[in-house]
Amino acid sequence: MNVEIGEKYPKTLLNKGTGFLADYSHSLNPYTGCSFGCSYCYVRQMPVSLFRSQEWGTWVDIKKEAANLLRKELSRAKAKGKVTIFMSSSTDPYQPVEFKEQVTRALLEVMVEDPPDFLFVQTRSPLVTRDIDWLQRLGERVRVSMTVETDLEDIRRAFSPMAPPIQARLKALEQLKEAGVPAQATIAPLLPSSEAFPRLLAPLVDRVCVDDYFMGDGSGGKRTRSLGISKRYEELGLQEWYHPEAYKIVLERMRRIFSDDQLYVSQNGFAP
Ligand code: SF4
């Protein structure tokens, strides 16, 4: 798919953490738009997407001069109190354009020079391993949250064909572990998965977060419903997985391998 890449010069980068991210002082998005274009992405229903004529997933704006802006904002924010940052809430900081543009890498560099109290890096892209050097330097102040919504590649393809394969994400988790970078597997939004899923994750992480559309889309599942996602489940004959209780199936399977203090549900799994 063709992705239209634009540029913008933002006035601010650090936004106040609100709603689902109320545990954070700030959220940080290196880009506007996301070329992974996942079918279930709740950002599709947010103003950033609704006020745009192009389809979500087909455009990305690069935030120019982002590192300089962050340097100033971070130092001002730190002077006022504790700074905890969620990167990113409405884009993937390691989507393909980052390979060349390196906006996220430049922001990380700023945060290594002047560390926030905590940085949560939310991605589904193995490109995050390119920045292991900076992430290591943040020590325990960082956690990488790698989205792995399912262990089944055909399910991943049915819901987010433009996103990286599951195997590549698992490999990235392995590399993060070897490098000693704190990380978690984030099964969110959970998609249909197999009994073998917990055994796949066990050697890679000691922390797993499970979340679904109903708890995690910021509207009790309404935004996801308006995307017509239930139709996709019907087409696949997997309607039983589109249910507010379905997360319990995955959670129970995870409990066979992981202890309770390694398992997190919804917002708790994203907290600093
Ligand atoms: S990677 Fe995240 S932000 Fe990007 S389309 Fe998928 S769900 Fe949305």
TrEMBL record:
Protein name: Radical SAM protein
Keyword presence, Metal-binding: yes
Gene3D superfamilies xref list: 3.80.30.30
Residue span, Radical SAM core domain: 20-261
Lipid biosynthesis listed as a keyword: no
UniProt keywords, alphabetically: Iron, Iron-sulfur, Metal-binding
Domain of life: Bacteria
Pfam families, alphabetized: Radical_SAM
SUPFAM superfamilies, A to Z: Radical SAM enzymes
Bilayer-crossing regions: none
CDD domains: Radical_SAM
